[in-house]
């Protein structure tokens, strides 16, 4: 339970006591419990009025998730399809890395890898039109997740621009997102040791 009566007196981490850190952890636990709501808000913020794409990024995200769901993908991968472009909001030129970092405590190594690398794999479909190497993804051929990422991009991401596709609403995916975000390692830095 959040103790709002605790008044911090420290001005640097090295001055903080165990009681101060207990209060911080209580606060962070309550704050982090609202993470699904913040991610849902981020997804909604992709609902821009104009786009040069056939559908906007919000509709694209819902459609990618719907395609993953209809294909029988596991819940974690459906959620990955739903949030794969949320990094666009703050970091459009490396949004895959941001989306992957955001989900790292909650998803498998495979799903994290797919999120992190999906931008390079998507480039297969358009890099050659923009002066880039459409086969740049091939530098990752030795990864055990190469084919998983190729499949994710081919079946869920690059196809998810059809304005007539029967796309499920965000409310359909919300329970899945909440379940995926309810698991995980929490404060990953607490799992680090000098030996690891």
TrEMBL record:
Residues 57-124 form the HD domain. It holds the Pfam family HD. InterPro entries: HD_domain, OP_Dioxygenase. This is HD domain-containing protein. It comes from Ruegeria halocynthiae.
């Amino acid at each position: 339970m959040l103790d709002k009566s605790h008044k911090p007196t420290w001005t640097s981490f090295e001055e903080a006591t165990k009681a101060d850190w207990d209060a911080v952890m209580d606060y962070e636990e309550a704050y982090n419990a609202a993470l699904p709501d913040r991610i849902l808000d981020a997804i909604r913020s992709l609902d821009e009025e104009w786009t040069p794409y056939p559908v906007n990024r919000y509709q694209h995200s819902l459609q990618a998730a719907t395609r993953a769901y209809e294909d029988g993908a596991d819940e974690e991968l459906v959620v990955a399809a739903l949030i794969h472009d949320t990094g666009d909001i703050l970091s459009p030129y490396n949004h895959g890395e941001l989306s992957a970092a955001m989900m790292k405590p909650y998803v498998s190594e495979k799903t994290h890898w797919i999120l992190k690398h999906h931008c390079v794999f998507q480039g297969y479909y358009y890099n050659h039109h923009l002066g880039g190497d459409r086969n740049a993804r091939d530098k990752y051929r030795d990864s055990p997740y190469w084919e998983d990422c190729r499949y994710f991009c081919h079946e869920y991401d690059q196809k998810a621009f059809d304005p007539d596709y029967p796309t499920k609403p965000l409310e359909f995916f919300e329970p899945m997102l909440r379940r995926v975000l309810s698991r995980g390692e929490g404060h990953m830095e607490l799992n680090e040791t000098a030996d690891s």
